[in-house]
Amino acid sequence: MDFQLTPEEEAFRAEVRAFLDENLPKGAKKTDPAFLGEWNRKLRAKRWVGFSWPKEVGGGGGTIMEQVILKEEMSKRKAPPLGTCMMGLAWVGPSIIQYGTAAQKQRFIPDILDGKYQWCTGYSEPGSGSDLASLQCRCVREGDEYVVTGQKIWTSIAMWSKWIILLVRTDPNATSKHDGITCLLVPMDSKGVTVRPIKNMSGGAMFAEVFFDNVRVPVENRLGEEGQGWQVTVSALQHERSSIAEVTGLQRKLEELKELARRSRKNGKPALADDGIRRRIGRFEAKIEGMRMNGMRALTKQLRGEPPGAETSINKLLRAELEVAFGELALEMQGSAGHLAREVDGGRWQTFALSWPEVVIGGGTPNIQKNIIAERVLGLPKD
Ligand SMILES: Cc1cc2nc3c(=O)[nH]c(=O)nc-3n(C[C@H](O)[C@H](O)[C@H](O)COP(=O)(O)OP(=O)(O)OC[C@H]3O[C@@H](n4cnc5c(N)ncnc54)[C@H](O)[C@@H]3O)c2cc1C
After folding, report:
1. Whose CA is closest to 319, among 218, 376, 268, 249?
2. What's the pTM?
3. What is the position in ligand 1's atom list of the atom closest to the CA of 360?
4. Per-residue model confidence as pLDDT tens digits over 70-107
5. How far is the CA of 132 from the centre of ligand 1 (A)?
6. Does the beta carbon of 202 lie inside 6 Å of ligand 1?
């Protein structure tokens, strides 16, 4: 592992910092639509949305290392996201770049970069989550169309999305369950699609059940070959897990937690002066540093042209553990106010503490990460 940046990379870091000084001054109203519109326009002009995507599709053609620098600096300053089409940028776009036809790239990539609309992800089903390859959503080809019938669940932001990247079963008789799965790109306003929002425990409805009743999808909307859906998905999810910028996000959250500890009281003193709390915060720091080193390990592999590897599951597992522990400590330090929805900081710690399923379950549960670490990192036998 080489921790030194090249002079070019140092220059790029300085460029990002200068951009942030100029365009994200202290006190900027980051949620104001006028500010966000201008922010996104400037990011697009610099080609920092889709920064690592090839220049020929409209991306920035940036190196992996530059991308890490960009995301780190943005995260340190709590900048708004790099682009607004979340799943489009995270994995739909990269999958289309890797597996899409020229027509699909032309049709979808510019809109994803411009954030014209949202994409959602139709993978999980009521009987298929961790064991995704057991999915049953039925799909039959009729001439130039596929006909889809089945149900998806936990589909984040389905109610605000214009398109869904959907996994369906085209061959129920395939010898392996990983074969016979196909990936389709489906407009959410297709006839026969019904979206039913699911309310979560923090009171919001961010995900939904999505029903498909004889939905007709043109064959030209297939991503990759028929039966190749599993490979499309695996490479797409690798994009999800390859980021180390989440470490910067955790460091920032820990700083906020320390700040809360300075303001909170325990046994008549600031909570930050309490030995037990200091010990817990110290452990958080050590784990985050471990995550940073592990992230560097994955990054080193990527810089050598290899995939980031199963080690990224270690960071997924630790992040889940840490975010839950942060939420618990934040509520504990508020004492009896911890039970009240809006007493401290407008209730953001309560919302944070109730949002754990997103980091713990979304993208693969801790048990599944442990299986991956045991089998693919430690080389332990399956049973
Ligand atoms: C906030 C949130 C957003 C989500 N967004 C989306 C989305 O946009 N699109 C989408 O398709 N899905 C989405 N999901 C679904 C998510 O991917 C699944 O919930 C997840 O994969 C787990 O599947 P499951 O809920 O069916 O649980 P199950 O797979 O039924 O697991 C239940 C329990 O059994 C354990 N378990 C299962 N298999 C094993 C095993 N082999 N070894 C050991 N333990 C095991 C699990 O760890 C878990 O504790 C989202 C989930 C959440 C919470």
Report:
1. 249
2. 0.93
3. 53
4. 998 998 898 999 999 999 999 999 999 999 999 999 99
5. 9
6. no
